[in-house]
Amino acid sequence: MAKTYLSHLPRKFMRLVAGFSQKSGQYYLSRATVQPPRSLTKRIWPWVDAGLAYYRAIDHSKLDDFTQDCLDASARQFLELMEWLRIILLQDAAILQKSCPGLPLWQHEVFSLPDWNVFATDVMSVHIRAEMPKDMLLTVTMPRVAEAIDENRQAFMKMFE
Q1: 64-94: per-residue pLDDT in tens?
Q2: 105 to 38, 90, 108, 109: CA distances (angstroms)
Q3: pTM of this prediction?
Q4: Domain annotation covers residue 154
Q5: What total of structural domains would you count in the chain?
Q6: How far apart are CA 116 and CA 94, in angstroms?
Q7: Is residue 124 part of a domain?
Q8: Residue 5 falls within a domain, yes or no?
Q9: pLDDT value of position 111
Q10: What is the 3-state secondary structure (H, E, C) of the chain?
């Protein structure tokens, strides 16, 4: 799918517009470190769980080739994507709720559960202190240090021309 449908997206531009470096892999989302409890995720698109349970219950070793071909891999992959996106939706919602409190989205039942308040507080506390991991910090900082050294070297060399 990535080779067919997503090959022409302007990724460098998309990273820049999102506030990250043009280079891939040089971003860190602190809110992604806090996983929502199952009590919340199961209330976002509950049909995802039923669909995935169906696909996971199939014993592929007992199916003939024709039946294997009839199983729609795209549907399973779509359900897995939706499973992942509902986690992201909840992580992002914890931050959005503070900046846009009047949105009708907050009327959904999931945002009135006690687990939501605990989860949203955890996400906000991680988001506020937003400290980049040390290994990520090095990969972002080292190219900038190298550029600064090179600029200083060139300026120094111009002094003696």
Answers
A1: 766 665 666 778 889 999 999 999 999 999 9
A2: 20, 11, 6, 10
A3: 0.64
A4: no
A5: 1
A6: 8
A7: yes
A8: no
A9: 94
A10: CCCCCCCCCCHHHHHHHCCCCCCCCCCCCHHHHCCCCHHHHCCCCCHHHHHHHHHHHCCHHHCCHHHHHHCCHHHHHHHHHHHHHHHHHHHHHHHHHHHCCCCHHHHCHHHHCHHHHHHHHHHHHHHHHCCCCHHHHHHHHHHHHHHHHHHHHHHHHHHCC
Residues of the chain with pLDDT under 50: 1
Triad 46, 49, 50: Cα angle to 5°: 95
**What's the token pair of residue 112?**
């009135």
Q: Which of 83, 79, 105 is nearest to 94 (CA)?
A: 105
pLDDT at 160: 75
Q: What CA–CA distance (Å, rounded) separates 117 from 124?
A: 10
d(CA 63, CA 67): 6
Residues of 12-32 as b/e, b for ≥16 C-beta within 10 angstroms?
eeebeeeebeeeeeeeeebbe
The verdict on residue 107 lying in a domain is yes
Dihedral sign computed on CA atoms, order 14, 18, 23, 28: negative
How far is it, in rounded angstroms, from Cα 104 to Cα 10? 32
**What is the domain range of residue 83?**
30-131
